[in-house]
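Translate sequence into structure tokens.
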Amino acid sequence: MKKVLAMVAFVMIGVIVYAFNDENRINVDQQSKKEVKSGEVIVMNKEMFIKDVFDYEKSEEWKYKGDKPAIIDLYADWCGPCRMTAPIMKSLAKEYNGKIVIYKVNVDKEKELAALFNATSIPLFVFIPMNGEPQLFRGAADKATYQKAIDEFLLK
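Result follows.
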């Protein structure tokens, strides 16, 4: 009888562990699909930055890893000008879908990335061309100003 109870307990634990791991895998897959959806601003963390933009832990010389020019919007939830530019970035992501990628980084959550770009004031936009060094744009502006920077610097 003890062997049967032990076996039942073992099977139940196995089922629970399997279900938990399968549920986590589904959540991770859904999150990955959500993050790479085109035409939207993508929330970026350090791991994604290292994987998709630049691995500053392995190299000091800038080498962009992306396949499209990019903009990184460094912001904070409490920042008024950041809240004003968020809908502009969302609109630009749709307008330039397939041509550029727009990321956003919360400086309160990703302090290391904020420090990497010396984000002493926000919003701070990092314009990353396919070749060459990224350029910083400090402060909020209107949509036309961002469009001009995209057209003349990123898509030239």
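Note: Residues 4-20, 22-35 have pLDDT under 50 and may be disordered.
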